[in-house]
UniProtKB/TrEMBL annotation, chains A, B:
Residues 6-61 form the HTH cro/C1-type domain. Residues 66-104 form the Sin domain. It holds the Pfam family HTH_3. It comes from the Bacteria. PROSITE patterns: HTH_CROC1, SIN. InterPro entries: Cro/C1-type_HTH, Lambda_DNA-bd_dom_sf, SinR/SinI_dimer_dom, SinR/SinI_dimer_dom_sf, TransReg_Diox_bact_type. This is XRE family transcriptional regulator of biofilm formation. It comes from Ammoniphilus resinae. Coiled coil: none annotated. Keywords: DNA-binding.
Amino acid sequence: MIGYRIKVLRQKRRLSLTELADRAGIAKSYLSYIERNLQKNPSIQFLEKIALVLEVDVETLIGEETMVKGVKQDLEQEWIDLARKAVLTGITKEEFQEFQRFVEYTNWKKKHKT
Amino acid sequence: MIGYRIKVLRQKRRLSLTELADRAGIAKSYLSYIERNLQKNPSIQFLEKIALVLEVDVETLIGEETMVKGVKQDLEQEWIDLARKAVLTGITKEEFQEFQRFVEYTNWKKKHKT
DNA sequence: GTACTTTGATCCGATAACCGATCATCGAGA
DNA sequence: TCTCGATGATCGGTTATCGGATCAAAGTAC
């Protein structure tokens, strides 16, 4: 639930509800209702304000659980963070794909060890 | 702008505005206003309904351009796809992190070649 | 040709989103 | 001890969201 995610992130950042609301330029009363999931349909602009202060993207707040044709499309946030970090480090897509092929090969090898 | 993105994706899927609205269970009048950016603050649930029909995640609709302390936080969709593929292939985070350290080491080596 | 259907745009209103003010409680400082 | 400020929760009101109805134009079938 979106409210819970906001609350956890806020606490992770050591922000009070009041502080987050002030910084985001939103009403703390509404934020309180959202965090407790008493209100569940905030607007995109409201969420963007919060995301900005919490230094995450909106997707993180709403949860990556979009279903596409019954197939779960969520990608664990940790993987996204890893990819992001990789980009900042300077890894190219080619290097990554090379690595992926290597792992596939390794797995294949494991499988055919007998 | 969010409305433009929705429109483009909808046309890509060969859906009429009416059809998308019907499938998403939303009012086509509001969708029309949104697509033309006459209204710019839809709710998260409204967007999730659209995203589901268009088979994208909400982030795609709103644009991955969240700025975090002046640093662009968008992550190229291709990288996300690579990460996703990696997960399906069975790569563990530990393996990936190992690889990352290796690349960092390689880059460091390159740098200190002289 | 006419009749019907579909499209996206326009209009108006109900209601939930979101606000500011207030409240009860707690903690810190004098 | 008392006072003040901060916290998160509660309350009532404004207004923008989002809905349904309608419209004008285009397309299709007979």
